[in-house]
Amino acid sequence: MNQMASKRSKPPVDRRKAPTFEMAVLLCPHQGKAENIAAAYGLFVPEYEIIREQHVAAFRAMAEAFNGALNERATAMHFQRVAAALVGSAVGAGNFYSDRLLEARTATARAADGGSDEHGTPIGLESKAQRAREFAADIAMQAFALLAAAHGAVDAYKEITGEDWKPYEAPAETGVEKKAAAAQIGAFED
Question: Which residue, of 6, 119, 128, 182, is most buried by count of CB atoms within 10 Å of its CB?
Answer without folding.
Answer: 128
